[in-house]
Amino acid sequence: MDELTALPQNALLESRIEICRLLVAISKAHHSISADIGSHIFITHILHVDLRAEHLVVSFCANKELNNIVLESDTLHFTGSYLDAHVSFDLTSPVEVLFNDIPAIQYPLPASMVLYHRRDCPRADIPADVSLRCIADEGGLMPFEARITDISHDGFGAIQYEGDINIEPGTRLKDCRIILPGGGSVVADLELRYTLIAIRPDGSAAHRSGFRFISKPEGLARLVAAFMQDLDKHA
For residue 159, which of 139, 140, 144 has the smallest C-alpha distance? Predict the structure, then answer.
């Protein structure tokens, strides 16, 4: 995973794309992840990671009673490792599913992950909302308000907008103005790659589209920093 070596030694990841890449790398390497449950340790493996559906699937362990406790636990704190790095993250709302005709556990993707090399995991305050305001297609025919909900360092991301706005995959949004934290903005052209229905916390429907920057803007590093913090710099 070349992307991992490009990240800081200690980082808080809130980019769904980067979180998925790290989870997929752990899965492909067949590394286990574990969670402490009282005096027991639940050890499992990541079977599948789905960015679009925003969930992952993990295996049951050999202890049936412990599996039942896991399914009844609203939240568990998992730790694992990849190469010489350690990771930690919370998983919530488990659901029993069949994966390749075998019982397994499905979780929504973690909202954040901490990647660290120190013996002790750095503490990090997680913002309630890391999305960025965006005036989409400002240079086109029909500008509209949107939120950028993810950006990765290689120029991919996700944008969320009202459910009554219908845009086909492949559409290019011109001169999208993304408002930077603390002031300023970055203007870039985006190409939509797919669109899904997203349900907001209040129950209303929105569209969420994956996108790529047609050319990487000069302010990409600052945009990415909103979703991936260098914990050593924030200590």
Answer: 144
Coil, helix or strand for 47? strand
pLDDT of residue 216: 87
Tens-digit pLDDT profile for residues 19-60 = 999 999 999 999 999 999 988 999 999 999 999 999 999 999
Closest CA to 207 of 233, 168, 156, 151: 168
The pLDDT of 66-73, averaged and rounded, is 96
Q: From the CB of residue 98, how many other CB atoms can be counted at a distance below 10 Å?
A: 10
Distances (CA, A) of 182 to 150, 201, 223, 226: 18, 26, 11, 11
Phi and psi at residue 200, in whole multiples of 5°?
-75, 165
Which domains are seen in the chain, by residue range? Answer: 2-116 (2.30.110.10), 132-231 (2.40.10.220)
Whole-prediction pTM? 0.84
User: Is the distance from CB of 138 to CB of 186 less than 8 angstroms?
Assistant: no
In sequence order, which ranges of the chain are alpha helices (DSSP H)?
A: 2-6, 16-28, 64-72, 220-225, 231-234
What is the average per-residue pLDDT within 112-120? 81
